[in-house]
């Protein structure tokens, strides 16, 4: 009878020991993870780990970061958002596809393909804006100009200067407008109204479309600034003097007042830095002996007396 009572009490949940029924309320809570992008704290299920470098970010921030890069077309290889990432990891295509919409992923694949063609010496784009097919070059003659015929529109062009094929003649020094239609002579002069809307960056050769705005262009791929009409570099032309003379005179696309205001701002910035340096120079001269004295004291040690 006593044995039955012991068995009954041991099976009663109310008589369980405190070690069996008492647990810390925090033991079931997983630690929150820190996101370096938004500086927030989130549970693990709301975080995404990059497989290549094992850096972790909240899924929303990483998704917005990837979508922004694809939208801007800055690069085809999307690197880890952490600038101090020790492995400099990159997101795999499967990871990108799992976090963005189908149309965004399609744009990413197109940018990736365009970069592959750009970096491949044996492939080039058809220079016709109405075609834009990929043409194959002869691998043995890649280093010299060769005749290329587009497989889609049958346009015949030079692989070096992108102009009409010129048998026995050297390539032109400057690249012409490369958006001529099939059968159209690319050397024909065009008026400003007939200016094509697609050209190539003179530095990295990426296609750029201009639908509106001024003639000062900046390539998103290589950050090169140039004139849309003559493709001349504007990297060092902060005051846009290029549009005061020559064939591109008054073709910037802004009013004279806005150009003067732009130049005033640029000059004001440089003048401000110069004035700040001028005002601060006396204080720097006065502080130099104290700085040298402190360095000398630190070099001698804290127990050494000050120099007399």
Automatic annotation (TrEMBL):
GO biological process: apoptotic process; protein ubiquitination
InterPro entries for the chain: E3_UB_ligase_RBR (IPR031127), IBR_dom (IPR002867), TRIAD_supradom (IPR044066), Znf_RING (IPR001841), Znf_RING/FYVE/PHD (IPR013083), Znf_RING_CS (IPR017907)
First-level EC class: transferase
This protein's record includes keyword Isomerase: no
Compartment(s) where it occurs, according to its Swiss-Prot or TrEMBL record: Cytoplasm; Mitochondrion membrane
Domain RING-type: 31-252, 35-81
Recorded topology in the membrane: Single-pass membrane protein
Reactions listed under catalytic activity: [E2 ubiquitin-conjugating enzyme]-S-ubiquitinyl-L-cysteine + [acceptor protein]-L-lysine = [E2 ubiquitin-conjugating enzyme]-L-cysteine + [acceptor protein]-N(6)-ubiquitinyl-L-lysine
Summary of subunit composition and partner proteins: Interacts with UBE2L3, UBE2L6 and LCMT2, as well as with BAX. Interacts with TBK1; this interaction inhibits TBK1 phosphorylation and 'Lys-63'-linked polyubiquitination.
The protein, known as: E3 ubiquitin-protein ligase RNF144B
Organism in which the protein naturally occurs: Pygocentrus nattereri (Red-bellied piranha)
Lineage: Eukaryota, Metazoa, Chordata, Craniata, Vertebrata
């Amino acid at each position: 009878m006593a044995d039955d009572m012991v068995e009954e009490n041991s099976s009663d949940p109310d008589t369980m020991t405190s070690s069996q029924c008492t647990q810390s309320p925090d033991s079931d809570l997983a630690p929150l993870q820190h996101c370096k992008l938004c500086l927030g704290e989130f549970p693990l299920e709301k975080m995404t780990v990059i497989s290549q470098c094992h850096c972790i970010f909240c899924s929303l921030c990483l998704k917005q970061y990837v979508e922004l890069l694809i939208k801007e077309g800055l690069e085809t290889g999307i690197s880890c958002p952490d600038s101090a990432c020790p492995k400099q990891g990159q997101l795999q295509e499967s990871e990108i596809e799992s976090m963005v919409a189908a149309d965004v992923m399609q744009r990413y694949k197109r940018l990736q393909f365009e970069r592959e063609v750009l970096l491949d010496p044996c492939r080039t784009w058809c220079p016709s804006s109405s075609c834009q097919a990929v043409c194959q070059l002869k691998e043995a003659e890649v280093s010299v100009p060769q005749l290329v015929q587009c497989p889609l529109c049958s346009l015949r062009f030079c692989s070096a200067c992108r102009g009409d094929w010129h048998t026995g003649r050297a390539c032109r020094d400057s690249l012409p407008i490369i958006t001529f239609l099939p059968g159209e002579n690319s050397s024909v002069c065009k008026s400003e109204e007939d200016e094509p809307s697609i050209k190539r960056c003179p530095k990295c050769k990426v296609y750029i479309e201009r639908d509106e705005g001024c003639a000062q262009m900046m390539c998103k791929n290589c950050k090169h600034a140039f004139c849309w009409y003559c493709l001349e570099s504007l990297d060092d032309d902060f005051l846009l003097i290029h549009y005061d003379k020559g064939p591109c005179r008054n073709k910037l696309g802004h009013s004279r007042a806005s150009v003067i205001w732009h130049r005033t701002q640029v000059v004001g910035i440089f003048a401000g830095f110069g004035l700040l340096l001028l005002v601060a120079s006396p204080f720097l001269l006065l502080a130099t002996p104290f700085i040298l004295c402190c360095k000398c004291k630190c070099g001698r040690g804290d127990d050494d007396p000050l120099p007399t």
